Structures are given as structure tokens and as C-alpha cells.
Protein 1
Amino acid sequence: MKLIFGATLWLLSVVATAETLHVYTESSPPYHYTDERGVVVGSSTDRVREILENAGYDVEFYLMPWARSLRMVSQQENALVYSLARTPERESQFFWIAPVSEFQLALVKLSKRQDIQVRSRSDILHYAFSAQRDDIGFNWLIANGLREGHNLHSCPDIQCSWQQLSLGTVDMIIEDPALIPYSARAFSMSEKDVETVMFIPELKVEGFLAASPKMAKPRVIALQQSALRVAIQTVDGAPATPQ
């Protein structure tokens, strides 16, 4: 009887755990960041929460360095990550649920650095950058000839990259100019203190909510359908509630 009772409790625990989805992201205000209570919030976070709760799941959000977020989602069956650029290299590595943000990335420098001149892509090799390890900006810099530990400083998050820029330990970072007012303020700067050097056309991307490659296919389909319902309800002006 004790064995049966114990097995029943274990089964109930497994079922309960299966109903909670673990969602990983990095700090990138105003899309996803922690508020004064330590709760993960932001415009993309709201959209992700809406999609998952509409599908009937409880959600636990975790904010951590980007490379660790990617590692965590790849190891867990009931895990998702956002905002993930949908690149050809990543296409088969995740299940893609829905876009939750848009980015147009660019090279960014301090306005006072008039010595920095980028007229062609090859010019970036003359300067030092910081970028978040394993994100698309970091990979773009590597693909264009920069070398980690030489002219590329790897950072765990965008705040680290901004700190390196503000201190002058690097010449440029990669950022969406639309986010400059939020990030500059965090380092006691105004948006006038920062200047866009050059947009990177191939880094105009949508940021997706994506699921672990280990997630069961029926659950993936349910989440994709939930995302469609939420999109339709948003267009119609109706509240998106779990169904």
C-alpha cells in the first residue's frame, strides 16, 4: 500500500511539473528585464505570458546571461526562450512558436568619439567591440573577422556591453538604436551621448519565442495555436484569456 501511495504521489508530482513551463531570457529593457521586486517584466514578456497562459500553462520566468539561457532551454523538455533571432543556423535547433519583438541592430559608439569612422564593413577590424556571447551580434562580429580576446570582449548580457562602452574600454557595441534611451539612462547618460554609426541590414530580425528541441510535438502545436489565437484576439480588440 505504501508503495502504491508513493507511486501515486510521484505521478501527481510529474503531472504538476509538466503543467509548468520554464521560460528563459536575458535582460534587454524594455522588452524583458526585472522590476524592483525582481519579477521578469517587459513588453515581450507580457506577450509571452499571454501566449502560454492562453494555452493553459503556469509559467516560471528566469532572467540570466544569454548563453546560459540557450543552454538551459536545450536541456529541458518543458523550456522556452525569447527573444531569439530565427537564423538559418538555428532553424533546426528549436521549435518556433511566434515572434514577440523586432530588432534593427546597428553599430553604436559614444558621440564624443569623433575619431571612430566606419565607411565600410572592413573598417570595424580597426576597433574593439563588446558583445553578448552567442547572440547574433556576437556571431556577426566573429563572421566579419573580429577575434574574441583580441578586439572582441565577450559579455554575459547587454548591460556588460554598455558598461564597457561607457567606460571607454571598447570603441563600439551592437545595439538597436530604439533601445538607446533606456540603456543610456541606466549608465547616467542621455541618448545624445550615444550615436548610431551604421545599421546592419542583415541584423534586422524578429525575436521569437522558441521551444526546446526536446518538447513534445503536441505541446509545441498547442503553443503555436495559442499564439495564433492571441494574435487574432489582439487584432479584434478582445482580451486573450486561457481557453
Protein 2
Amino acid sequence: MTHPTDFPRDPARPALLPHLRTALWLAGIGLPVMPLREGKRPFGNCRACSGSTCGDRPHMKAAGTCQCPAPCHAWGAATTDPDVLASPAWAASWRQAHAVAYHPGGADLTVVDLDNPDAVAWARHNLPTTKVVTTTRGEHWIYRGAMRSVNGVREGVDLKSTMAYAQWRGTGTGTMAPLPEAVRALAAKKPAAARPSCAITVPALAGAGECPHRSPVYLERGIAMAEKRIKEAPDAIHKTVYRTFLAVLSAHGRCGCLTEADIGRLFTAAQEKGESLRSCEDAWSNARTKLGM
């Protein structure tokens, strides 16, 4: 695969919407792209895919079993096809877009997302130099080569490659280097099948006694309904996640019947809708604070 080892300047195309213009240029140099809504979130699935009726798996779109007229399935929508990007079905999304994202793995790239100054300092001492793009809170270090995407490999460090997207923030500086073993090793430290890591615990209130509804069926039904609510949210995902977390904690948080596996299921559902692990943790923490936990 030809890597986009250098990013030429975006040519002016005043007749096009700015984000669409950028997307077409990026597609032309081999980066699969997609629009992002406010808050760096992907657009919700089309009507044909809402409610997981198509199986809700991005690879199904590529296989032709899911006919999506508009951007769908988060990173699965990313494409280099200019006819798709400029199609009428995508026009409304580009008009509402706040940014452009690309699928690093689709271009055989890996982005090391360094989210704070401490993470940047760590990378400068431990990783080979490569192309660096400045972000609002840190830096993106971009390497040639794809790998499994993993969030939270260390404090403030996410790996974005296959089955993930990264916001386009400019051409950056430096020369892109091959993906080093040091980056692959970061992912190896985290099991592939692990649930999203959440160090949040929900202790029972002192003197609460026996849980009044410690029925496995009751709890399972509650978690399943919460997952469904998140997965079927057409928009306002962050607000939906917060309200769902609040409802779950209201029903099950004070008696201590929630397990890490239950919380992991909720976090997974939210992340599959485009929420970051950090956003999930913030929503959970805010819900606990709201309830005085």
C-alpha cells in the first residue's frame, strides 16, 4: 500500500463547502475520510441502519449487505470515493459538519494520540520521531503501518488505527516513520477482548442492608434496556449516555448490585456509538455526583 508519507497543501476550491473540500483533497492522497459532528462525534446511522436492523457492523457496508445512503457506522463510513463524498446523500452531513475525520487503518497508518503534556513528554523520551500534528490538548504522532486500536494504553495515550477514526488537524511537521515495535508493544499489554477499562466503583451505602431487588433477571433486564437505549439513540449521544447512566445508577447504584461487567457493557455500547472512554468516564462520574454517590 502507498502511504501518504507527506501531506501536500489543500488546494483552494471556493465553490465547495470547506469541510467537503478538505475531505476530497484527503481522499485524493489516500486517506479514507468522513464528516464529524460537533464534539468530534460521527453522524448517526441512516434510517435503514437505525436500531441495529442491518446488524450494526461497519464491515457489512464494505461487503455490500448494508446499503447506507449517508455516513453510517462511524469509522465504517470513511471512504476515498469522491463520488460518495460529494453525493447528495452526504450533502446534509457536510453542511452540518464541524470537522473532518479519517480512518488511519484504512490508509495503513497508526495515530498515537497524546492527550496531555505529560503524555507528549513521555512519547518524546520513548518513541521514535515521526510526523507530529498539534491538537487542542496535545499531539498526534503518525506512523506508517496499521495495528489494532486500543484506548488508554497508558495515561493520556490512545492508539488509533484499524476500526477507529482520528480528527484531521492539519499536515503537521516532520517525516513519517515506520510503525515501531514500541507502539505495538503498548497494545500487547492490553488483552484484545478486554472490556473498556473503568476504575469506577459503586459502593453500597452504609447500612443499606440486603438489596431489595437482587434478582439476576431484574438487573439483566435493566442493563439490556440501557444498552438498547444507547445503541438506538439517533443523535445527542453524549446526553443520552449521561441520562442512561443516571437511570442505571438510580435503580442499581445504591445497593451495590452493579458489577464491573455490567458497567463494561454500558461503556462498550457508548463507545460503539462514538463516545470516547474519557467521555464515558466523565458521564459516569457526573451521574454519581448528581445522585450524591
Protein 3
Amino acid sequence: MTQPTTNDYLRTALSLAQAGVPVLPLRKGKVPFGNCPDCTGLACGGRPSMKTAGDCGCPRVCHGWAAATTNTAIITSPAWAPMWRTAAAVAYHPAGAGLTVVDLDDTDAVAWARTALPPTRTVATTRGEHWIYRGTMRSVNAVRPGMDIKSTMAYARWLGPGTGTTAALPDVVRALAAKESRPARPAQSAVRLAAPAGGGECRHRTPVYLERGIAMAEQRITEARSQIHTTVYRTFLAVLSVHGRCGCLTDTHVARLFTAAQAKGETLRHCTDAWTNARTALGM
């Protein structure tokens, strides 16, 4: 089978963008290219995510899903050219196209979906299938064994148009995400005192700004493929540097970060140490 070339990926990206699907290049390992220098390690506090996807203001691809764009001038710009030259895939932001992707990662997950979910457009993947529905929702990993939901604040690889007719997003998929809305592993008592005290309401922008910052921090930890310890510490540091002194962080926010870290194999002890060390480094 002939491997796609740089021009193939770029042509695919432009075709999708013209159809209203926000796209971005992926490097080897199915991950976005590294953050731009101004945003490495979430040094910007995730502020670009408050803007429209693809309009974060950075000169390069950054922040994963938030870099996805339908702007062909950006896609073909000199800033993106080096990434297309080494791209290994094209990704898209499902919610930006009004879609939700149910990512079924193995044959068991596919078999379950065929009995439990309404038929819809399907795309074959390396090990399973993507089931694509019309409608958006929050993204959640591991809602069932071998099953992730990708919609808002997430990206999915483009693997072709698939087959079948796109159905409306069913309640059964939304219900699966609702079941995973609570922190699964760290006990609340273990982090109840971890959120720093402060003056109350977030003074930076709005509660939505805080929510998106926490969601992006979760995503950064979840997408780490190496140096997990370092990624967790730096992410905690970034969150605390922006929100640690105003008192808007709650135990629930901290538990969400701990849950993401523990899902990557970190122990509760390491999470607690990383959080404490980040606070110490910031003089809290």
C-alpha cells in the first residue's frame, strides 16, 4: 500500500476545510505538533483556548484541538509548511464540524456498539472503528472498555469519509459520558485541602475560562506519551500559576487533575507531591 505524501495530507486538509471541517496536522504517534514557544507547558495559562479554534493567535500549531481551522490561508501558510512536510496524518475537531466520534478501539468494543448503538456512519481504524454522529457533547475517555468519546475540546484522525448515513447523536452515548462525570480514583479526602485559598471568584475572565483551563490541563496530561512525571508537574504548575492565588480552584478541580494523572499511571502520592512542589515553587 502506497503511503500518503505531504501533498496528499495537505490536499485532504484543504478539502475538509472547504467543507467546513476544522483540521490540523498530526506528527508521528498520532499527536499534534509541539506547542509554539510562547505556549510551551501552558505558560500562557491556556488563554488561547478562549478564542475560536484555529484563531489562538500563535504563529504555529498549538493546543491540539484548538489549532484546528477551516482557514485555508492558515493551512497553507509558511508557519504550517514545516509541519506538513513531516506530517503523519490529518486530524479534525469533531465538535467544530458539529459531530461526535465514538472511538471503538477493538473488536469487542465494535461488537458491543453494533448491539447497543443506533447505526450511523462508520470509518474503519487500525484496530476498530469510528462511529460518527451528528451533534456535539463533551469528550470523555474510557467510558467503556476500548471506547472513547471525542467531540468538544478533542481531535480525531481523518481516516476517510466512511460508509453509511450520519445519524443524530443518541441519548445512550450522552448517558455513557454522564456515568464518567465523577472522579474515579482519587478520594476526595485525599485532596480536600489541596486547593489553595484565595479571594474567591476568578478575576482573570469568567468561570468558563477556568473550566476550559482545567479541561486543557486534563487533555495535556492524557495525551502525554513520555515524561509523564514531568508533564504532570508542569501542568500543575501552569494551572496554579494562573488560578492558584485567586481562590477559584476547588477540590473538584484538583480531583479532576489527579484523576487524569492517575489514569496515566501516576500514584496518589506522586500527584500530591507534584501539587505540593508546584505550590512551593510559586511561593504558595
